[in-house]
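dumping this here so i dont lose it
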């Protein structure tokens, strides 16, 4: 079984109870599945869950280089140099990220309101970056954008391989074919 879930902001990416936080158990009835990788509580978007350990490893483990696409709203207006730095790989102190695909995008059309909304400052612009990485270390995307001078305000995982959020409202899930055309190279 493979489930695509659009995780809302503030939901812990686990089934076990956590004091004061919502968990996957409040949204997904199937208890035989577990997340194929994590998504921070403060992040939103696509989480894949499966009952197949081999598939879980193929999706989650960095050695398989599964492409993960993020929509990142950042504080400020990223320069070409900042985007180039993201593309080349960013030194985060404890490791240097692999090269990423990074480009400025318009605010995604299918975007839903976030609760609570992000902070808004009239004197500081924001911008959206589409960032594709093939690793997924703890808080990596947030650390990358901060390192190049543009802190993350909102982070949404839009795709894993060829599985996307398209047509999936926050808090909703759908079962998908585990033989989906996984794309590790593009």
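and the seq i came up w/
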């Amino acid at each position: 079984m493979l489930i695509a879930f659009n995780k809302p902001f503030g939901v812990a990416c686990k089934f076990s109870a956590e004091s004061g936080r919502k968990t996957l158990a409040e949204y997904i009835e199937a208890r035989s599945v577990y997340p194929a990788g994590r998504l921070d509580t403060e992040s939103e978007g696509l989480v894949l869950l499966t009952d197949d350990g081999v598939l879980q490893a193929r999706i989650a483990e960095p050695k398989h280089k599964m492409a993960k696409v993020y929509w990142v709203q950042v504080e400020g207006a990223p320069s070409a140099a900042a985007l180039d730095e993201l593309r080349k790989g960013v030194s985060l102190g404890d490791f240097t990220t692999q090269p990423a695909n990074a480009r400025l995008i318009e605010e995604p059309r299918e975007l839903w309101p976030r609760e609570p909304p992000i902070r808004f400052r009239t004197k500081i612009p924001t911008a959206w970056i589409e960032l594709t990485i093939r690793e997924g270390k703890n808080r990596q995307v947030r650390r990358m954008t901060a390192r190049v001078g543009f802190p993350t305000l909102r982070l949404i995982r839009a795709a894993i391989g060829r599985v996307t959020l398209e047509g999936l409202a926050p808090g909703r899930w759908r079962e998908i074919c585990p033989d989906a055309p996984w794309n590790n190279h593009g």
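The domain at 2-176 is CATH 3.30.70.1560 (Alpha-Beta Plaits).
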